[in-house]
Amino acid sequence: MKKIGLFVLLLLLSVLSIFVGVKELSLTQLFQWDAQQRLVLVTTRIPRTISLLIAGSTLSISGLIMQHLTQNKFVSPSTSGTMDSARLGILVVMIFFPSAPLLFRSFIAFLFALGGTLFFIYLTRFLPAKNQVMIPLVGVMFGNIIGSIATFFAYQFQLVQNMSSWLQGNFSTVMKGGYELLFLTVPLLIMVYLYAYQFTMAGMGEDMATNLGLDYQRIQLLGLSIVALSSAVILIMVGSIPFLGVIVPNLVSLRYGDHMKNTLVLTAVGGSIFLLICDILARVVIAPYEIPVSVVVGALGSLIFITLLMRRRWT
C-alpha cells in the first residue's frame, strides 16, 4: 500500500470507530446538535478513538526502539518483561500506597518497567546474538517469572480481581476525564523522532555505533527510558496489549525498509490502524456485547507472529 493510502485508511477507520457502538450515532442528529447524541460523542466515542490512536502508535514505536537497541526483530515491551515489570510496580503501589494518584502510580510503574528492561538487556549479553528466537524466548520467560511473582503477592493481599484489570487491554471504560494521561506519551514520541538517527546507529551494534562517534550507553538508556515510561502509562490507562509492538514494526520494515527516520511515522500510523481494526472487531463480533481488544489483538497478532517466524526460517 502507498504511504498516502495508509493515512486515508487511518482517517476512515477513525471515523468508523466513532460511529460503531451500542448506542447508534446519527449524522443528521449530530448536525442538529442533539444533546444525547452530543453527550455520547464527546464523552465516550471521541476519547476512545483518540486513546486507540495514541496507544497503537506508542506501542508500535516502543517495539521499534526495542528492536533497534537489541538488534532483534522479535523483541518488544511484551516480549522483554517490560509490561510485566510495570504490572509488578502497580501491585506494589496498590499494596503500600492504595490511595496514590495516577501520576504517582505511573512513576512507580515506570521505575519497575525500566529496572526490568535493564535487567533483560543485561541478560541478552549472555545469549547468542545470531539466534533471533532465543532472545525473545528468554524475554517471555523472564516476563512470566515477574508475572508469577505479581500474581503470588496479589493472592496474598487479595488483590487478584484488581490486578486482573491490568491483564487485559480494554477501551470500553475510556471516558472523558479519565484518559488524558495518555497524552504524556505524545512528547515521548516527538523525542523518539528527534533521536531517530541515533537509534538507527545504535541498531548497528555497540562497536559500530561507538566507532561512528555515538555515546551508545546514553542513547540506550534514553531509548529504554522512553519505552518504560510509555509502557507504564499505556498499562495503567488501558491495560496490556500483546504482540502489537512486534508485528507492526516488522510489517512496516518488510515494506518500507529499516531506516528508523523513514519508517517512524509509518510505524505509528500502522500501529494505530491495526489497533483500530481490532477494536472495531471486538465491538461487532458479539454485539451488543464487547470482548476485550487484547483478545482480538492476541488472536490476530499470534497468527502474524508465527507467520513472521516461519517466513524468516524459510528465507
From TrEMBL:
It is found in: Cell membrane. GO terms for molecular function: transmembrane transporter activity. GO terms for biological process: siderophore-iron import into cell. It comes from the Bacteria. The chain crosses the membrane at residues 45-67, 88-121, 133-157, 178-199, 219-252, 264-285, 291-310. This is Iron chelate uptake ABC transporter family permease subunit. CDD domains: TM_ABC_iron-siderophores_like. GO terms for cellular component: plasma membrane. Keywords: Cell membrane, Membrane, Transmembrane, Transmembrane helix, Transport. It is a multi-pass membrane protein. The keyword Manganese does not apply. Belongs to the binding-protein-dependent transport system permease family. FecCD subfamily. It comes from Lactococcus protaetiae.
